[in-house]
Amino acid sequence: MSKTVFRKGWIRALKNSSLPAGSRLTAVAEAKRQKRLSPSKKRIYQISYAKGIRAFWRRQLIKQQGRRDVSVIIPALNEALTIDKVLREIKRLKPLEIIVVCNGTTDRTALIAASHGCKVISYEQPLGHDIGRSVGAAEAKGSTLLFLDGDISVYAEDLLPFIRSIEKGADLALNYIDPLLPPSAKRDTISTMKEWLNSSLQRPELGTASMTAIPHALRRSYLEVIGSESLSVPPKAQAMMIRAGAKTVLANCVDIIKTNRLREHNGSKGMPNVVEELIIGDHIEAVAWLQANSGVDDGNRSSEPYAFDLSSGSLNIEALPITSLSRSRWAELIQGAHPRTEEELAAADGLYLGGEAYVESSLPPLTVLPIELSLIINAGLETMSDQLVPLQTPTVVKASILDSLNKGQGFSLIRLGDGELLTLAQETVLSTEEVRNAGGHFLEYAGLNLPDLQVRDALATAVMHADVIGIPSKRSATFQGLFHRIAYYYSWPLHSMRFTSSIINYQLAEVTDLYPFLLNSYRTLLLGNRMHDLNILLAEQGFSQIQGNIGVNGAASIDSVCEKTNSYNFDVTLISAGIAAPLICNRLREQGKIAIDFGHMADELIRGAIRL
């Protein structure tokens, strides 16, 4: 029976493949029509139908002579793991050119693309979501533009219908994924926004089909109408094309839902989805554009390209800002003059994207909030005052350590710096590859070789068992900002834990006399690769309670280091060992010792920058 079902699906697919693009049934939709089939047989039918569709288009590929007048445009940001597979499929189409826009890429993406003969356009910093499409389109020469992503590989057979649709007279060919989605009442916000836009365009039959999603193709001549810069806001570009009379068709149903690789900035456990918020904002902007142009006759309306720089109304590709296209807008409208230095440009980006733009994109459709940004932020902070996490002062931390000494109890003071946070981020809020790209040689210096999920899990356990944890208090754009995401991921009970500043190791020396007191009054063991030099220095300064020192060779040496400590009689240990430090602190705490993550204090003491 299974073979019969497979054959029926295959034959039906070949018949339907010859229908016009808008009438061609999809694998999922066709499978749903087979109400008499069991779930397992429906799946067989669905698979055979999909393979039948591809078989039809594979024949068209084989028949193809010479190159197609097609430019394939792929924005890419650190896609070294997937770009090779993506390009191999595209090359089967024999396009005129493949343009890869590498923006902010730090891995081998550009090299891999170049090895495939692609035209590579590189920018040192990320341009922003979808802006790579504008850049690539401005450089394209083909009469048909096919847009893809660098992290989603699509069969050439599935891409060919988009190209053929344009070749046969369509101006815009979209991906129709409605059969893959749940009923409208259960759909996500983005799908709802796509339907809303198409309904506003008087094209409800398009459903959720959108230029936001790939694959899609368009006729290059339409860039003269909407401007290549408009492609950076795909829903608005779609609205502009359809309002200008573009013939828009549903070319194929390509399942990109399962294949779309989740990125950290696309949302993680307990955190907002930044890309989702951006896409929603783009759709609101598109509908707002429609309303602003609703009273103008199509035949007399001049095109209105998306204005990145409101002073000029167009995008200068050669002068693209390296971080964000918001900078000129903010400088012109708010500051009254263009910033001159890169630092000022970055500050303008931050003010706009992290403030006014975020508020604007968060508002319900067709509303404004006529309140100054600072007042909005203050009001939000007031409503979340019960979520504030207190940080203990150095004096309080010192008192806790001395209290544990008097009671003969173990105590661990650990700190979460860049190395620890990147370690905890492995396969939780970042992929291992993203951690490797971010950390570079720094992680090896800190004592970690990636991937190491065992160390990650041990570090998470150490955080839960530590008496006091030093954490970053700044919200600057560094690795330290990972703490908030990691805390959400692990669901740490923040209000029942004790925290202090991540620079508590320095503050204890600046504000209290804890270190001299311990070194003079309690047997102290020094752990770390530079502790031999520190041992000599402290002995010369008259501290007589130091029992010795043990080197630490990364996280892999923790067991041997802890075993060596059994040879010493000590009460307190100061540990300067990178990522291994909090793990050792946790072990020694269980043995009733006072364990302090000393960090770079050892280096500062040795070079004379700090004196006890």
UniProtKB/TrEMBL annotation:
<feature type="domain" description="GT-D fold-like">
    <location>
        <begin position="396"/>
        <end position="604"/>
    </location>
</feature>
<keyword id="KW-0472">Membrane</keyword>
<dbReference type="Pfam" id="PF22882">
    <property type="entry name" value="GT-D-like"/>
</dbReference>
<comment type="similarity">
    <text>Belongs to the glycosyltransferase 2 family. CrtQ subfamily.</text>
</comment>
<feature type="domain" description="Glycosyltransferase 2-like">
    <location>
        <begin position="71"/>
        <end position="173"/>
    </location>
</feature>
<comment type="function">
    <text>Catalyzes the glycosylation of 4,4'-diaponeurosporenoate, i.e. the esterification of glucose at the C1'' position with the carboxyl group of 4,4'-diaponeurosporenic acid, to form glycosyl-4,4'-diaponeurosporenoate. This is a step in the biosynthesis of staphyloxanthin, an orange pigment present in most staphylococci strains.</text>
</comment>
<keyword id="KW-0328">Glycosyltransferase</keyword>
<dbReference type="Pfam" id="PF00535">
    <property type="entry name" value="Glycos_transf_2"/>
</dbReference>
<keyword id="KW-0125">Carotenoid biosynthesis</keyword>
<dbReference type="InterPro" id="IPR029044">
    <property type="entry name" value="Nucleotide-diphossugar_trans"/>
</dbReference>
<dbReference type="InterPro" id="IPR055171">
    <property type="entry name" value="GT-D-like"/>
</dbReference>
<comment type="pathway">
    <text>Carotenoid biosynthesis; staphyloxanthin biosynthesis; staphyloxanthin from farnesyl diphosphate: step 4/5.</text>
</comment>
<dbReference type="InterPro" id="IPR001173">
    <property type="entry name" value="Glyco_trans_2-like"/>
</dbReference>
<dbReference type="GO" id="GO:0005886">
    <property type="term" value="C:plasma membrane"/>
</dbReference>
<dbReference type="InterPro" id="IPR049785">
    <property type="entry name" value="GT-D-like_firm"/>
</dbReference>
<protein>
    <recommendedName>
        <fullName>4,4'-diaponeurosporenoate glycosyltransferase</fullName>
    </recommendedName>
</protein>
<keyword id="KW-1003">Cell membrane</keyword>
<dbReference type="GO" id="GO:0016757">
    <property type="term" value="F:glycosyltransferase activity"/>
</dbReference>
<dbReference type="GO" id="GO:0016117">
    <property type="term" value="P:carotenoid biosynthetic process"/>
</dbReference>
<keyword id="KW-0808">Transferase</keyword>
